[in-house]
Write a structure and sequence with these properties.
By secondary structure, this protein is of the alpha+beta class. The protein folds into two domains: 5-14 and 121-158, no CATH class; 18-118, Alpha-Beta Plaits (2-Layer Sandwich). The chain contains five helices and seven strands. The protein has helices at residues 33-51, 79-87, 92-103, 135-139, 152-158, and strands spanning 5-11, 18-27, 58-65, 69-76, 110-119, 128-131, 142-144. A hairpin with a 3-residue loop joins strand 3 (58-65) and strand 4.
């Protein structure tokens, strides 16, 4: 079990910020396991591939499971590195994308989506109370809230903790 850090904490994303990448799938036809299962297992393969890189641009991730939706919340070092990975013909993503387009394309059985956000210091506000290092703080730096950054407005104004 993760160690709880009593008190209030925030994240320090560093001078370059961080890229938050949300990606997921939706089971439109849950009974079509032949369609959604290959999509479902493709993401863990990509995450393992990235984790195996000595200087991986993927700083951290968290999986979320809902009734029909699976989402991976990812934190990347830079937008260029995310796009580079996504367009690398030798990476697992290329094969997964080809497979999706060949097997599913526009048949409606499985939905996919992603959202990308480049977050810079001074453009984010995060707070964790009595939590283990989590989310953005786990992917970057989990730091105590100081008196200078005690309010949301101050954390937004000051940027990195």
């Amino acid at each position: 079990m993760a160690k709880v850090s009593p008190g209030r904490y925030t994240a320090d994303v560093g001078a370059d910020g961080v890229v938050v990448f949300l990606i997921g799938m939706r089971l439109n036809h849950w009974w079509r396991i032949d369609k959604w299962w290959p999509v479902f297992v493709a993401m863990p393969k990509m995450l393992r591939e990235l984790a195996a890189q000595p200087d991986s641009p993927l700083r951290g991730y968290h999986l979320w499971f809902g009734f029909r939706v699976v989402m991976v919340q990812q934190y990347w070092r830079s937008l260029d590195e995310l796009i580079s990975y996504a367009s690398d013909s030798k990476a697992s993503h290329a094969a997964a994308w080809r497979n999706f387009n060949r097997r599913i394309d526009n048949n409606g059985s499985v939905g996919i989506w992603h959202e990308t956000y480049h977050v810079r210091p001074g453009e984010l506000e995060v707070l964790y109370g009595n939590m283990p290092a989590f989310g953005l703080a786990a992917a970057t730096a989990h730091v105590p809230v100081t008196a200078r950054r005690a309010s949301a407005r101050a954390r937004l104004r000051e940027g990195a903790a």
